[in-house]
Prior knowledge:
By secondary structure, the protein is an alpha+beta fold. Helices cover 23% and strands 44% of the residues. It has a six-stranded mixed beta sheet with strand order 2-1-6-5-4-3. The protein is globular.
Amino acid sequence: MSTIIDHARKERAAELVGHCAACIDAERYAELESFFADDCSYRITSHEAWQQGLPIGFMRCTSKGMLIDRINSMRDANIFEPHRYRHLLGTTLVREAGEDRLRTETSFAVIRVMESGDSGLFVSGVYHDTLVEIDGELRIGERVVVLDSSRIDTLIVIPV
């Protein structure tokens, strides 16, 4: 893979990451699947586990179907205090570029806003994404969400 990339592909990558986060912020969870490839993987882990190359984490889905099941169970089965998220995204950096894929990193912070109006930092970290070109569209083939902290104050119910 080369690290040379044209500006248009970099913009498309940044837009994909941004639209995915905006979808979560707007609570349009059913639309999340459109950002992922069918054979995707999604994992949330800590910085320490990432550094050590450990496969453990807070959430792991090895297919789009598992990711959809996770989102559906959040809406239908889980009980939690009503809240929403607001993502603050850094610049999407392209680390590697190939003909049909990109490896990117995007720093993020997620603020959790409670129904009461209280808000605070929920998580921060970096998305390590492998984006794949499918029928002319970029999709997330793999996302590893590396959290800055190994402690979270509640279960992560939906993808971050």
